[in-house]
Design brief:
Elements (H helix, E strand, L loop, with lengths): L12 E2 L9 E5 L10 E2 L8 E4 L4 E5 L5 E5 L4 E4 L2 E5 L9 E6 L5 E4 L2 E5 L3 E6 L5 E4 L2 E5 L6 E3 L12 E4 L2 E5 L6 E4 L4 E4 L2 E4 L7 E4 L3 E5 L2 E4 L7 E4 L6 E6 L4 E4 L5 E4 L2 E6 L2 E11 L7 E6 L4 E7 L6 E4 L2 E4 L3 E2 L3 E4 L3 E4 L7 E4 L3 E4 L6 E4 L4 E4 L7 E4 L2 E5 L4 E3 L2 E3 L3 E5 L3 E4 L13 E3 L3 E4 L12 E3 L3 E4 L11 E3 L4 E4 L4 E4 L3 E3 L3 E4 L3 E4 L2 E2 L5 E3 L3 E4 L8 E2 L5 E3 L4 E4 L2 E3 L2 E3 L2 E4 L11 E5 L2 E3 L2 E3 L8 E4 L3 E12 L10 E5 L2 E12 L12 E7 L3 E2 L4 E3 L3 E3 L2 E7 L10 E4 L1 E2 L4 E2 ...
Parallel strand pairs: 2-4, 3-6, 4-7, 5-8, 6-9, 7-10, 8-11, 9-12, 10-13, 11-14, 12-15, 13-16, 14-17, 15-18, 16-19, 17-20, 18-21, 19-22, 20-23, 21-24, 22-25, 23-26, 24-27, 25-28, 26-29, 27-29, 28-30, 29-31, 30-32, 31-34, 32-35, 33-36, 35-37, 36-38, 37-39, 38-40, 39-41, 40-42, 41-44, 42-45, ...
Antiparallel strand pairs: 1-2, 73-78, 76-77, 77-78, 77-80, 79-81, 82-84, 82-100, 83-97, 84-85, 85-86, 86-87, 87-88, 88-90, 89-90, 90-93, 91-92, 92-96, 93-95, 94-95, 95-98, 96-97, 98-99, 99-100
Length: 1067
């Protein structure tokens, strides 16, 4: 780059071109114009002063003199005008200069302009020790190796010391290897508040060589040439030092090279300004293993480009505050000594020391970290050093999910902030050992073992954050646990954990996760409790004194559970489940859970655990908001065991449905108060509509209803389950209409609907058996049809049906309205005729019959209520022997077994299946008397015996036993028959009247092997009339049909309409 120097407007008149010791030379603006000789003090002179005033100009040629102005020692040069040096011909040891001090102790000051052209022509120079070069003006050099300001001029006296170069103006060089400021020797200082600029290739802006040299920059240092370094420092020895201070506002910029390069020794670099490399290397530390770099970053520091510490032992120190976002390599130590620094760069530090303030790691660091007391290291799981000795505060600012597998030791505190999930999973066998405790401020800390949270004495402080369990384990009982006003959350996920110690503080606790959190201590924290998910146990069976004693509100969310053996103080709002004792902890003993306050139950109170006898005590008001109460009860007589809700000193209002689970109760009649399920003590009251049953309650033969009040004194606000109705207690809302006890005060039993239904089964099966049996004429037609002899000679078949209504007596008074349908087919296996017109027939028959009907009876205190339906299927196999004598008198013996399958189903869809068999034996005789050729009168008699056997069965409430019964029946009948011959064959219309007699019987149905319910079948007399006809279709085929009606005359009520149709084939 060429620089054009304009001549001054005035003439320079230097009054002495070769001053000696003690002389002063002034170059003013007088003629000649310009001064072309220059001023050069004589050899050995001292105390020479040269002043170039404003407007004066000195312009010399290198061919005439190498220096425009020069002094020897202890002298001064001050330029306020213009100095120009031009011409080439120099070399490294043969240099020119605009002004120069040749020996020691000189002061050179430029407030004007210095310009040189040509190689090796410097602007200001010194060649001894203790020299001061100060530029307050402008220095411009054009040419290779032409320096702006330099000490050790000519590079010949590198042992000089204590030279100071100060630039408050501008220094610009244009040419290769042309330095803006160069100092060789020890204890030198380069101070720049202006600009030091080089534009040539390889032209270092500031070059320092020697021990204890210092650069102090608050101005601009910039290079633009290829390979040109902003600052180069070489101490020459591994034991020597150097300092580079880039103060606030300072800039060290290399457009195409390293901003800084060091070599040898121990260099301290302090940066509060900008260090920038367009080539990507802000610092190149060299490869000397005996050197070291200490890089101090202060407030305002900016570094653009990588920072390479070199092969030595290097460190970075952070002072003040700021941001690091570039790469550091080959530095072994990072030391935080400031107030607030953010590390967003990279580094391969072996050790990080946080001595003061807060260091925020936004990118990862390797090696060990040590945090001093009072200092803070803030990082994420992804950025934190793998080993931390924390004696201050280690803060995990975790915005997203991350897992930290390193180890944390020391006496300091670990804090979690940020919304993400931090998983502490130390790979060390002993886990983390830090003893200062853990603070949960935001987000979540997940741990799989207690030692992930440090020493077992380390406190846990919840300040709005969450502790999440990644395994089932218990927190160390020696850990203090505190909730600040911001509260905290424990997330068990699907695991179980126990906190043995109490939780203190002013904040609220939230329980998350589907697992179980057990709190076995006294917990006086005052901010309340939110059970959002899973189960919160307050006191296991071994810790009934456990309590949430702070008095804050307790909220149980839908799907969540609160319970245990301890107590809770405060208002409890339940939208989930309150579970007492082993209803909350399966396998535990029975016990009590206490709420010292109001319980607003909008969901479930569960007392129904693995046994009977749990209780929930509400020492305050109980308010049911369509809530549910689940209890286990032994459904038996009065005072049977039951879970119960105890209201102490308050009131029970609202609405709550009670679900009762029967635990081994076989049912029994209530004789006194009943079974206690709601107990009011210490003056508590209960509203008349506060409780009702959510579903039917049955055991054995009985239905249990809920009643307010007992029959004993002082029980008016208690609630009982009863299986009888007595005067006094009031049935709960939703109960069916109940009868009023009579004046005798005898309890009215509350049989469940299935009792009359099942009681109807035995007598109904007998009716089905009689229908399947029929009479001789109903099965086989007329005696005249039976004519053939020999082996299988005839077959017959019939269908029959009837509609019947029947009622029986005793405890449940069942009644039946049913239809019967059946089919039979028989075969005369053997027939023979004997002398005197006697005939015998032996045969077998098969049959199927079905009954379908409805049953009414006495149930739940009400007479004749519809209780259900009854379906019975019968499959019969019978044998018969018929003897027909002269004039067609007959005897008919039948033995039949019917296998039955009874399927009762109550109106509330409770049913069973009963199987068994009934054996029916019949002996019948008839004697026809001819009244005319066309009319016959036939008296008849029949005796029947039945044996019924039914196996025990079971419905979802109890077992049902039927046992065996034997009954007898008899019939006296008269049949009037006509004989009409037609061209189609013989037609025989008939009318039959029967008087039936049935013996008394008692059918016992036993429920739960305890309650025997009898059904009485009285001695009955009934009348039946039938009409029909028989017809001979051919000598091989006959048909017969009849309809009839029967009604009971004495005994139980009954009537029936019957119909039959049969056919007989003979061959």
């Amino acid at each position: 780059m060429a620089v054009v120097l304009s001549p001054p407007t005035a003439h320079a008149n230097c009054n002495n071109a070769a001053p000696g010791s003690g002389q002063t030379v002034t170059c003013d603006a007088a003629a000649p114009n310009p001064d072309t000789t220059g001023v050069n003090a004589v050899a050995g002179s001292t105390n020479v002063t040269i002043n170039v005033t404003a407007g004066a100009s000195v312009a010399v040629q290198r061919s005439t003199t190498p220096t425009a102005l020069s002094v020897i020692g202890s002298s001064q040069i001050t330029n306020g005008g213009v100095i120009n040096l031009s011409g080439g011909g120099g070399s490294g040891g043969n240099r020119g200069a605009g002004m120069v001090g040749m020996a020691d102790g000189n002061t050179l000051t430029n407030s004007g302009t210095i310009g040189t052209t040509g190689a090796f022509n410097d602007g200001m120079a010194a060649n001894g020790s203790n020299n001061v070069l100060m530029n307050n003006g402008t220095i411009t050099t054009v040419g290779s190796n032409a320096y702006g300001m330099t000490a050790a001029w000519g590079q010949t006296n590198v042992g000089q010391t204590n030279n100071n170069l100060t630039n408050n103006g501008s220094v610009t060089t244009s040419g290769s290897d042309a330095r803006a400021a160069s100092i060789l020797g020890g204890n030198g200082t380069v101070t720049n508040t202006g600009s030091l600029t080089t534009n040539g290739n390889g032209s270092t802006a500031v070059y320092m060589q020697g021990n204890n040299d210092t650069l102090i920059n608050s101005g601009t240092i910039r290079t633009t040439g290829a390979g040109a370094e902003g600052v180069f420092s070489n101490t020459l020895s591994s034991t020597f030092t150097a300092q580079i201070q880039n103060l606030s506002g300072g800039q060290i910029i290399s457009d195409n090279g390293s901003a800084l390069r060091t070599l040898n020794g121990n260099t301290t670099i302090t940066n509060a300004g900008l260090i920038q490399s367009g080539a990507g290397v802000a610092l190149n530390g060299g490869n000397s293993t005996t050197s070291s770099i200490t890089m101090i970053l202060q407030t305002g520091s900016q570094i653009v480009g990588s920072v390479n510490g070199g092969a030595g032992n290097n460190q970075v120190r952070l002072q003040g505050s700021g941001l690091v976002d570039n790469a550091f390599t080959r530095f072994q130590t990072l030391i935080m000594q400031g107030t607030d620094w953010t590390w967003n760069g990279s580094g391969d530090f072996a050790n990080t020391f946080v001595d003061t303030g807060i260091l925020r790691l936004q990118s990862s660091l390797t090696g060990n970290a040590t945090v001093a007391p009072g200092a803070t290291l803030e990082a994420s799981a992804q950025t934190l050093n793998p080993t931390v000795t924390n004696n201050g505060l280690l803060r995990f600012a975790q915005p997203g999910a991350g897992t930290y597998t390193g180890t944390i030791s020391g006496t300091g505190v670990v804090e979690k902030t940020g919304a993400g999930v931090l998983t502490l999973a130390p790979v060390a066998a002993g886990g983390n050992t830090y003893s200062g405790g853990t603070i949960f401020t935001a987000g979540t800390v997940a741990v799989g073992a207690d030692n992930a949270l440090g020493a077992p004495t380390g406190a846990l402080t919840f300040n709005g954050g969450t502790l999440q369990f990644a395994n089932s384990f218990d927190l160390a009982a020696t850990r203090p646990i505190t909730l600040t006003a911001a509260g905290g959350t424990i997330d068990t996920q699907g695991f179980s954990t126990t906190i043995a110690q109490g939780v203190t503080g002013t904040g609220a606790l939230t329980k998350l996760g589907s697992g179980i959190l057990t709190m076995n201590g006294n917990n006086p924290y005052g901010g309340g409790t939110n059970v959002t998910a899973g189960t919160l146990i307050v006191g296991d069976a071994a810790h009934p004194a456990a309590a949430l004693s702070g008095g804050g509100p307790v909220n149980v969310a839908a799907g969540a559970t609160l319970g245990g053996y301890g107590s809770v103080s405060g208002t409890v709002v339940n939208n989930g489940t309150i579970a007492a004792a082993n209803a909350a902890l399966a396998g535990g003993p029975i016990g009590n859970f206490t709420i010292n306050g109001t319980l607003l139950n909008s969901s479930i109170v569960d007392l129904a655990g693995s046994g009977v006898g749990n209780s929930l005590t509400v020492a305050g008001n109980y308010v049911g908001n369509n809530g549910q109460l689940l209890v286990n009860t032994v459904l038996g007589p009065d005072n049977s065991a039951s879970d119960k809700l105890v209201v102490s000193g308050g009131s029970a209002t609202g609405t709550t449905g009670i679900t009762v689970n029967n635990v081994g109760g076989t049912g029994a009649a209530s004789r006194a108060d009943g079974i206690l399920v709601i107990q009011a003590v210490n003056g508590a009251t209960t509203a008349g509509n506060a409780f009702s049953l959510s579903r039917s309650v049955s055991a054995g033969a009985y239905e249990y209803l809920l009643f307010k009040g007992g029959v004993s004194s002082g029980t008016g606000d208690n609630w009982y389950l009863r299986s009888t109705v007595v005067a006094g207690p009031t049935a709960a809302p939703g109960s069916p209409p109940l009868p009023t006890p009579g004046p005798d005060g005898k309890p009215i039993p509350l049989f469940r609907p299935e009792v009359p239904l099942y009681s109807a089964i035995p007598p109904t099966i007998r009716q089905l058996g009689l229908a399947a049996l029929g009479t001789f004429h109903e099965r086989r037609g007329e005696q005249s049809f039976i004519t053939r002899a020999g082996l299988p000679s005839a077959a017959w078949a019939r269908v029959f049906g009837q509609h019947m209504e029947q009622k029986w007596g005793q405890d449940t008074s069942p009644s039946l309205s049913a239809n019967i349908a059946g089919v039979q087919a028989g075969l005369d296996l053997f027939a023979r005729g004997t002398a005197g017109e006697h005939r015998d027939q032996l045969g077998l028959f098969f049959g199927y019959s079905a009954l379908n009907g409805t049953v009414n009876g006495f149930a739940i205190g009400q007479e004749d209520v519809a209780v259900g339906s009854l379906s019975i299927n019968g499959y019969s196999l019978g044998a018969y022997w018929t003897h027909i004598g002269p004039s067609n008198w007959y005897t008919d013996l039948v033995l039949m077994n019917t296998w039955v399958n009874a399927n009762p189903l109550s109106a509330r869809n409770i049913g069973t299946t009963s199987t068994g068999n009934i054996i029916t034996a019949s002996l019948e005789a008839g004697y026809p008397i001819a009244l005319a050729s066309y009319l016959v009168l036939e008296p008849q008699v029949q005796a029947i015996w039945q044996h019924l056997s039914l196996a025990s069965s079971q419905d979802r409430i109890s077992t049902i036993g039927f046992g065996e019964t034997d009954t007898a029946a008899g019939r006296l009948g008269v049949r009037l028959q006509g004989n009409i011959e037609t061209d189609k064959g013989l037609v025989q219309p008939f009318v039959t009247t029967n008087l039936w007699y049935g013996s008394a019987a008692t059918d016992n149905v036993t429920f739960a092997s305890t309650d025997v319910i009898p059904t009485a079948v009285q001695n009955t007399t009934s009348f039946e009339v039938r009409a029909g006809l028989s017809a001979t279709l051919s000598k091989f085929a006959n048909i017969y049909a009849s309809v009839g009606y029967a009604t009971e005359l004495t005994g139980d009520y009954g009537k029936a309409v019957k119909g039959r149709l049969g056919v007989r084939m003979t061959w």
